[in-house]
Amino acid sequence: MDGEPEVSVIIPVLNGEGEIGRCLECLLQNRFPRNRFEIIVVDNGSKDRTIEVVKSFQVHVALRILVLEKVHISALRNLGAAEARGKILAFLDADCLAPPEWLQAASQIARNANSGVCGAHYRIPDDATWVGRIWTIDRFYGKEGNVSYVPAGDLIMRQDLFRRVGGFDESIQTNEDFELCQRARQAGLSVRSYPGLVVVHLGTPRTLSGFFRKQRWHGTHVLTVFLRDPRKRSNRSVVLLSVYTLMCLLGMLAGVLFAMAQRGWMISGLFAVLLVFPMFVIAASRSIRRGRWLDIPALTFLYVTFCIARARSLLNIGV
Q1: Which of 257, 265, 246, 237 has its CA nearest to residue 310?
Q2: Which residues are CB-neighbours of 241 under 8 A, at least 6 positions away?
Q3: Structural domains in the chain?
C-alpha cells in the first residue's frame, strides 16, 4: 500500500458536538486496521465544541480537519474527496454510527471492478419513536440490491469513479445524493444497497414537527433536480404528488375564503378529502402488502405530513 490508506472516510459537520464524538468512536471500534484508513472531517464553520471534540481523536487515528464555511454540504464532501489519499471514498454523516464491520465491508465491496455506487439506507436508533419507526419500515426496510439511490451519509465509491462522474453537485442544497446516483447510472455504473453497509442514523426525527421540518428541508431542491430532465428522473412521482398536494392546499384555502363570505365549507371539505384519500390508499396498500394493518392510520398521517412538507418546499425553488 506504500503507506497510503486504502479507505478515506469523509465526514461533513456543522455544530455537531453532540454526535461527532460517537461517530468517530464507532469508526475506531471497527475491525479494520487503523493504518488502512484515514478520517477527513470537513467543518462548515461550527460555533460549538465540534473542532475540539474531533481533535481529541487525532492521537488515535490518521485524522485531518478541513474548514470550508458557508457552503452546501456537497462542497464539504467534494473538498474531502479532493484531499483524500485513499482509493476508496466512504462518505459518512456526523450523526451516523457505523457498525464494527462497516469499513471491512466497504473495502471488500468497493474493490469489486463493478462496484459503482454502494451504500445503504439508514437504520433507526433503538429508542426511535413511532414517527421514525413506521416511516423507516415503510420507506426503507429491506431495500437491498439495485436501488434508485443511497443516502450521501452512507455512500461508498472508488475515488476514480467519483471523479469520473464529477462528484456531488455543489449548486444544490439537498437531493445531492439522488442526483449523483442518477448521473452514475447514466454513466453505466450500478447503484446498490448492501445490508453490511447499514449505519444507525441518530438524526432520525422523533416528533411529527421534526419530521415535517426534515422533509421540507430534504425537498428543497427535488424539483430543481427533476426539471433538468423530467423524462429520466425516477423522482417524478414525488414531484407530482407534491404538486397535487399544493393544489389541494390552495383549494382548501380558497374554500375557507369562500366560506367566510358564504358560510359554507363544502369546497374546503372536498379538497381535504382529495388531499387525504390518495395518502390513505398509498398507506393502506403498502401496509397490507407487508401484513402491518395496524400501521395504516399512522402511516396515512405521515404521508399527509410528508406531502405537505414537500409541497411547501416547492415554494423554495431557486433557494
Answers
A1: 246
A2: 278, 307, 310
A3: 7-206 (3.90.550.10), 231-314 (no CATH)
